[in-house]
Amino acid sequence: MNPMPPPTGTGSAAGRPPYPDLTLASAPVPALTRAFLPAHVRATARFTAPAQVRMLGLLQVSTYRGPARSFVRSTEDTTEPHLTLGVHSSGRATLVRGDGTTACRPDDIFVCDHAVPFLLHESVDFELHLVRIPRIALTLTDRQVRALSARAPFADGPVAPLLGPLLRGLLDTLPAYPPATALRLATTVTGFVGSLAAEGPGHGQDVEDTVDVARPEGAAGAEPASGPAQEHQDLLWRVRAYVDARLWDRTLTPATIAAAQHISVRYLHKLFEGQGSTIGRWIQHRRLEEARRELARPEAWDVAVGAVAKRWGFANATHFSRSFRAAYGMSPREWRNRTRPSEDPASGDG
């Protein structure tokens, strides 16, 4: 029996065909599976019907339902870079990814990079949602993507306990939202994924150029620490919170930040050297991200690009546009047009 062809679906609101990146198959069993699953499991593998494919703003949602011993796997993909966010509404599975296998429990979330094939072997009857998120919709560095997609399926930490129930509640029904509502919901999901990347596998800060907010004392998942290392980390959180509250201020400089925190400019730079970044790069990254989010909000579609740039601390629209293109590979206007749903009434499929 040959593998089933890629699933077909409803397509996007703009009429694009759904991405054919996922199939359910039983034979031939991929080499990846043969390497890790025992013969008696491979011999009894089954397949079910193709996925139900729906769109939520810029996100593609593929929902699979099937019997025990089904395989759900990625296939060769030539479309834009993306991440796949997975969550079960019911069932449990073995996730085969790269050169290892891990258990995927009912409450677990997992993330896969499009460049690394993955496969799920479902051990009981199941319902699975796979959410395809374009990389352009996420302001993540390559290092963050590698770290996030290498994490074993998880349900703990500050973010996953919030995101898991939200995804299941949203995706189990996924009605035909109006385009503006669908876009807001998609933005919420991508924001959570950015927070997953920022928390890191140990629920701490993972990296260069990440988006952070002030961490409240006693936050879930925070690891207790003491001494100079804890003081250093607390200071870093305070600096980031201070900057986040003043992104609009074009006079924000290392000197003004250091003075507000009662430290030297030299020590401020050393704080960010340990994060693989600089304070200047981090400020620009945060300004670009907030401006990008505003450009995609329906209520801001009539606001001039230059006004958005000014609101987030850029000196002029030219500098903003040049920086935006360097970061995201397109102009602010192109990004806004891409996120704006078609005016066609049929686009209400969400």
TrEMBL record:
Keyword tags: DNA-binding, Transcription, Transcription regulation
Source organism, top-level taxon: Bacteria
A Pfam family it matches: HTH_18
Domain HTH araC/xylS-type: 237-338
Gene Ontology molecular function terms on file: DNA-binding transcription factor activity; sequence-specific DNA binding
Keyword match Iron-sulfur: no
Region listing for Disordered, in residue ranges: 1-21
Parts of the chain that traverse the membrane: none
PROSITE patterns the record matches: HTH_ARAC_FAMILY_2
Keyword Transcription regulation: yes
InterPro entries for this protein: AraC-bd_2, AraC_XylS_family_regulators, Homeodomain-like_sf, HTH_AraC, Tscrpt_reg_AraC-type_HTH
Protein name per the record: Transcriptional regulator
Organism per entry: Streptomyces corchorusii
